[in-house]
């Protein structure tokens, strides 16, 4: 998005968000972002996508969203400079952004050690939202612990996403995440007003992503590439998950923490798809 981008009059009332997802490798960060972006755009959201995950070349956001912006170089310092330029542009343009930074040492993790991003963005009218995606492994909480230490990067708008897709077959999501929910770091984050949300599992998720399909396309039996159309039963699985489970999941996330949709602009309290907003956890 260019620096000359303008917001609509109704959108001007919405505080733009910089929605950032972090977590260990292979916890489903990109899948979570892909789900949110597709669902929110379906609701009319105007989202700028920044793909800074240079390690994931198979299933990164640019694969699913051709308009995703990303660094021209995989060099760390170039990536950091690119990220700073994008943040400056967002502050000037006042638009909603969703950022996937990948795992490990990233340009973002370096940047937050240098600059108080949350406060700096707030002064420019931008709300920073940090989503931690974790699985049932206790070690998945490490990122949350690291960023909360000394308030390194711990915005009030902190979302903890328990990825149900990482639960092994034969276990319930509630049972698999029981120990993680009791982790002292999780409890401390919730005490500091973080919100907890459980992303529902889709058993055939890999079949959707391997084909490069949107969830609407998968549910409708669209065929792409060499893998062919998904089975009828898998199409039904996707449809049920996409039309029922995902709207309910998104309704547990505060609307003001998400990019503005037609629904959220009409009413600050309006839930997605008419569902009542409930607090997870």
Description:
The chain is α/β, with parallel strands linked by helices and 281 residues long. It folds into two domains: 16-201, P-loop containing nucleotide triphosphate hydrolases (Rossmann fold, 3-Layer(aba) Sandwich), CATH 3.40.50.300; 203-256, no CATH class. 39% of the residues lie in helices and 12% in strands. It contains 13 helices and six strands. The protein has helices at residues 29-42, 61-64, 76-93, 107-114, 117-123, 142-148, 173-176, 178-181, 184-191, 205-210, 215-220, 232-250, 262-266, and strands at 17-22, 47-51, 96-100, 127-134, 158-163, 195-199. The protein has a six-stranded parallel β-sheet, sandwiched between helices. The longest helix is centred in the C-terminal third of the chain and has 19 residues, at 232-250. The radius of gyration is 18 Å and the shape is globular. Residues 1-12 and 269-281 have low confidence and may be disordered.
Describe the structure concisely for a colleague.
The protein is an alpha/beta fold and 281 residues long.
Tally of structural domains? 2
Mean pLDDT, all residues: 87
Low-confidence stretches: 1-12, 269-281
CATH domain topology of the largest domain: Rossmann fold
What proportion of the residues is helical, as a percent range? 25-40%
């Amino acid at each position: 998005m260019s620096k000359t981008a303008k917001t609509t009059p109704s959108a001007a009332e919405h505080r733009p968000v910089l929605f950032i997802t972090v977590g260990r490798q292979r916890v489903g960060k990109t899948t979570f972002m892909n789900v949110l972006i597709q669902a929110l755009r379906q609701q009319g959201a105007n989202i700028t996508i920044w793909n800074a995950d240079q390690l994931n070349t198979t299933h990164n956001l640019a694969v699913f969203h051709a308009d995703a912006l990303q660094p021209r170089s995989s060099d760390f310092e170039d990536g950091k400079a690119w990220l700073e330029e994008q943040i400056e542009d967002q502050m000037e343009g006042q638009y909603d952004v969703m950022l996937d930074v990948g795992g490990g040492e990233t340009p973002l993790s370096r940047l937050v050690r240098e600059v108080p991003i949350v406060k700096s963005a707030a002064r420019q009218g931008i709300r920073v939202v940090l989503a931690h995606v974790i699985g049932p492994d206790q070690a998945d909480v490490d990122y949350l612990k690291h960023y909360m230490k000394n308030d390194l990067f711990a915005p009030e708008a902190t979302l903890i996403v328990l990825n149900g897709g990482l639960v092994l077959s034969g276990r319930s999501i509630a049972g698999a995440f029981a120990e993680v929910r009791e982790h002292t770091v999780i409890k401390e984050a919730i005490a500091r007003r973080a919100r907890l949300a459980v992303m529902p599992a889709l058993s055939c998720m890999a079949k959707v992503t391997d084909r490069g399909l949107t969830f609407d396309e998968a549910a409708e039996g669209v065929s792409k590439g060499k893998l062919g159309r998904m089975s009828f039963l898998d199409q039904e699985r996707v449809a049920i998950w996409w039309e029922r489970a995902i709207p309910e999941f998104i309704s547990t996330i505060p609307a003001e923490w998400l990019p503005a949709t037609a629904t959220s602009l009409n009413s600050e309290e309006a839930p997605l798809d008419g569902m009542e907003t409930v607090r997870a956890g």
